[in-house]
Amino acid sequence: MADNDWKSRLGMVYSTNPDFEYETDEEPEAETLPPQRQELRVWLDRKQRAGKVVTLVKGFVGRDEDLQALARLLKTKCGVGGAAKQGEILIQGDHRDRIVEILTRSGYRCKKAGS
Predict the structure, then answer these.
(1) Rounded to 5°, angle at Cα 100 from 95 and 103
(2) Rg of the chain's alpha carbons, rounded to an integer?
(3) Quick check: 81 and 92 in contact, CB under 8 A?
(4) Virtual torsion, Cα 77, 71, 73, 53, nearest 10 deg
(5) How would you list the strands of the sheet with 88-92, edge to edge?
(6) What is the 3-state secondary structure of the chain?
(7) What is the pTM of this model?
(8) pLDDT 10s digit of each residue in the chain, 115 long?
C-alpha cells in the first residue's frame, strides 16, 4: 500500500500522536506452493449455471497472478473459455480428463473429485 493512498484510509480519525502508524486489516497474500506440493481437485459442476456444465479446479494455494497463469494455461490447452477467482479455476464444459492430464504433466498433484 502506498503511503499516500487516501482512499484506503477513509473513515480514519486523525491522530495527533507523532509516532502513530496506520495499519490496514489486509492479509498478506499467501506464497505460491511449488506444483509438487499443490493438492488440486477437479470437479464437474452444474449448480447455478442454467444447466451448463463447467469444470472446477479447487485447492490452489498461492498468489492470484499464479492462479491466473495456470487458468490461462488450462484454457489455452482445452481451447475454451473460463475464469479464475477466489482460489478456483472455472473452465467451460466437461474437460476433467484433459485437465487432470495437463496438470499431471505440469507436475501438479491432482485428482478427479465430485460428480
Answers:
(1) 120
(2) 19
(3) yes
(4) 0
(5) 82-85, 88-92, 54-58, 39-45, 109-112
(6) CCCCCHHHHCCCCCCCCCCCCCCCCCCCCCCCCCHHHCEEEEEEECCCCCCCCEEEEECCCCCHHHHHHHHHHHHHHHCCCEEEECCEEEEECCCHHHHHHHHHHCCCEEEECCC
(7) 0.72
(8) 456 666 666 766 666 777 777 676 776 667 888 888 889 999 998 888 888 999 999 999 989 999 999 999 999 999 999 999 888 999 999 999 999 999 999 999 999 987 6
Cβ partners under 8 Å of residue 41, min gap 6: 57, 58, 59, 110, 111, 112, 113, 114
